[in-house]
Amino acid sequence: MTSTQIGTPGEEPAEPVEAAARTESGEGYHRALGARQIQMIAIGGAIGTGLFLGAGTAISKAGPSLVLAYAVAGLVIYFIMRALGELLLYRPVSGSFAEYAREFLGPFFGFVTGWTYWLGWVITGITEVTAAAKYMTFWWAIPQWASSLAFTVLLFGVNLISVRLFGELEFWFSMVKVTAIVGMILICLGILTLGFSDAGQSASVAHLWDDGGLFPHGLGGTLMTLQIVMFAFLAVELVGVTAGESENPEKNLPKAINTVPWRIAVFYIGALIMILSVVPWKKFQPNVSPFVAAFEQMGLGVGAAVVNFVVLTAALSSCNSGMYSTGRMLRDLSLNRQGPTLFARLTRTGTPLLGTAFSAALMLVGVWINYQWPGKAFQYVMSLATICGVWAWIMILLCQLRYRRKAERGELPTSPFPAPGAPFTSLFALAFLLFVLVLMGFDKDARIALYAAPVWGALLVGAYRVHLARAPYARPVRQQDGPADPEETAPAEA
To answer: pTM for this structure?
Structure first.
């Protein structure tokens, strides 16, 4: 079976491609991601730099109570993912957040959501290559800017080849992370029960409450880590962006979303309980991976090197996902006449080349940041990425609430994957996200994002006004529609 790709509206379609991708979505993408890859992309989205590196800072601020912070935030993330699942099974599309925002909240919110989510992933990509560059210094005295440049170029090349290669690489990235965390949990259990390694004599679950109590810095200290905690969960929603390229979204997406609770329970809560039981929380330092530090404290030097490789893999995995996401978000904006038309083009392998290249070029800003401020680069961009991610989650919840009201009135078909407890769970999640934004205003390191957000908002308002002035009556161009009729896009005569 062969397929053809459609480029920018009005252009000749590309030559037929081989059957490597099998089928296409209605938007010109290849449905090349199978159940195995979708599951691992979902798992990989729950394990990233926020846990492997950011948790070091969070432990120093909250102590053992960080476990509770991850548990509460994880519950909220599950509510968000079930809201997203309800929308995805109602109508699976690629670039889903902006597409649903356009449908349920209006074209302006679709415009803002699409560009903000794109910016968030560009910033996240900078964050991840920054973390990867930090991890490289564990072995070699390589300048951070040099490592970040090499990783950005490498992952850009991977994303240009095909979505199948992206899915396969992400599968193995995630497999490494999952195997390593499970192995670490088992090692910590062995230390607690058998007493081997340097930490064997002192290891005890009593470390969770004996050294200053569960809340050594008070409830306020725990609340101030919520921004770091939410950053750790960025990318769990990426499974929604893959909807347009999933071989069987009706079957694969619910399975991936329903694994969120156990993923959080094992990879976040379980892992943190283990390392905090083996190594007292006061021995962890900000900006140092607590997983690497734990193995060093245990006297397992080889283990520390292995874990450092794993956290390096986690950072590259997230950056890989970011490049995948940004190109598709730009193409979605282009197809809806809310971005440059050149971003709509697909290669013969179904890859949005120009959108991915533009995003990767902006990620190179991270090389300069790592050159200028190697010690502060991670903190500078983490809060900015969190703001963008929180906006996407808020849009998902608002769209789901609007969709549910329409479905209850019979205006739209009911989703086969309804969110349990909605609308109350969605309202709770909304309130929690707004609370996190308020808390960021009390954190001097995170406050920069709140200063930058209005500037970005003003730029988007201005850009949207320009967009309306240029094409006030343009209707979206989706792949199934074909080129728009010129008469439909022309402004009415006075």
So the answer is: 0.81
